[in-house]
Amino acid sequence: MTGQTDAVGRLAGKRALITGGAGGIGGATARLFLAHGAAVAVSDIDADAARRTAADLGGGTVALAHDVTDEAAWTAAVAATVEALGGLDILVNNAGIGTLGGVLETDYADWRRVLAVDLDSVFLGCKYALPALAESGRGAIVNVASVAGLIAQPNMAAYNAAKAGVRHLTKSVALDCARKKNGVRCNAVLPAYLNTQILDGLIPGKSREDMLHRLAALSPAGRVGDAEDAGHAIVYLASDEAAFVNGSDLVVDGGLSAM
Known about the structure:
This is NAD(P)-dependent dehydrogenase (Short-subunit alcohol dehydrogenase family). Belongs to the short-chain dehydrogenases/reductases (SDR) family. Pfam families: adh_short_C2 (PF13561). InterPro entries: NAD(P)-bd_dom_sf (IPR036291), Sc_DH/Rdtase_CS (IPR020904), SDR_fam (IPR002347). The chain has one domain: NAD(P)-binding Rossmann-like Domain (Rossmann fold). Helix 1 packs across helix 7, helix 3 (about 70-85) packs parallel to helix 4 and helix 4 runs parallel beside helix 5. By secondary structure, the protein is α/β, with parallel strands linked by helices. Strand 1, helix 1 and strand 2 (about 40-45) form a beta-alpha-beta unit. Strands 3-2-1-4-5-6-7 form a 7-stranded parallel beta sheet, with helices on both faces. It starts with 14 loop residues before the first strand and ends in a 7-residue tail after the last strand. It has 7 helices and 7 strands, in the order βαβαβαβαβαβααβ.
């Protein structure tokens, strides 16, 4: 593309499905999408939270109850989005959970749960949304991975594995779409820990304030990022401004991974 796109309206006319839409990054992204002219369906396993988010956002936002680990639920969510919005141009695979523990401390059930929510759901989302995205003529998938997919920690075995998987799956999907010339791009956003609900109770015995202080001290930026920091990156990758960006990682970590 050549020329410039107005800051407001860079997603004008586009229709988006955002998973985990009632959470921090999901809610912030939905709000930014609406501000930039998109129609949005927010999906969440917590149906009441999805409805509250949609009501708060207004603008005809659609709320969907959606277990992202369930194959049939993905078929239903995509169909409901297409019916409500008239099509699908953007998929944001944002739903995710975290857990702490090294290999010895991680129960197999917890391992499977994290991999199912954080990685399997991205596979299912890409698989079942791709036909509708291809039909739009200029579809975009943005997968929310993590800087934990770049930098390993000894006590994050499941989360590290899942987010590294999302990062590489993103590249595979991007190359497959390019080979098939279906007009769909696939990119990933890799945030560091952000000031969202995922921090609640992450380290037992530590208050949220203590945790934010410790995380800020680790960051070259001297602060913990906000959900909007990731949301702005997602807006860019979903927009036509990123028409030549495919299979990439957009790291949003205040410089942490550069150390």
